[in-house]
Specification:
This protein is mainly alpha-helical. The chain has one domain. The protein has helices at about 15-25, 35-45, 50-65, 80-85, 90-100, 110-120, 135-140, 145-155, and strands at about 125, 130-135. Strands 1-2 form a two-stranded antiparallel sheet. The two termini are about 30 Å apart.
Length: about 160
């Protein structure tokens, strides 16, 4: 994602050709914190139209609150920790993630999905700094188990699993 003019090479309009072009642009590096595609689909829908800074701000706020080995912090009950630990803007986004996914996505664990979405250009940022889905992102949402997922699996070395 960029905040100004795109520095990416021209990507074909066809989602699968676009993903293939992205894969050929860079070396294969395994993505840390690999999320489930179900979680990614939930988050892509929820992130659409929201400011990128709000999404990364929520991640940063949660990171600041994560605790230490000596003073651990529990993240298992978002209904409890969201109102207790987050500012109102971050509470609103965290609640949207938690409730919008019917409890399938804990807002504490969204970083891997954002890494995947950025690395494979499933999302982009418009001139106002808001997240927009790319053709690839829409394809991932609309075709569960489809070619976009299969191509991502291959790119990340997951086909052998």
């Amino acid at each position: 994602m960029t905040s100004g003019p795109s520095t990416h090479t021209e990507i074909p309009a066809d989602p699968l050709s676009a993903l293939a072009a992205i894969l050929h642009q860079e070396q294969r590096i395994r993505l840390p914190l690999f999320p489930s595609y179900s979680q990614v689909r939930h988050l892509l829908r929820l992130w659409q139209g929201r400011p990128r800074k709000l999404i990364t701000g929520l991640e940063a706020a949660i990171n600041q609150l994560r605790g230490t080995p000596q003073n651990t912090v529990k993240w298992t009950d978002p209904d409890q920790w969201i109102p207790e630990r987050l500012c109102p803007d971050h509470q609103q986004l965290a609640q949207a993630i938690w409730q919008g996914s019917a409890g399938a996505v804990n807002p504490r664990y969204t970083r891997g999905a954002r890494y995947l979405a950025q690395k494979y250009e499933l999302i982009d940022e418009d001139a106002q700094g808001r997240i927009q889905l790319t053709l690839l992102g829409r394809d991932l949402i609309e075709q569960p188990g489809g070619m976009a997922e299969a191509t991502l699996d291959e790119a990340e070395g997951l086909v052998s699993f």
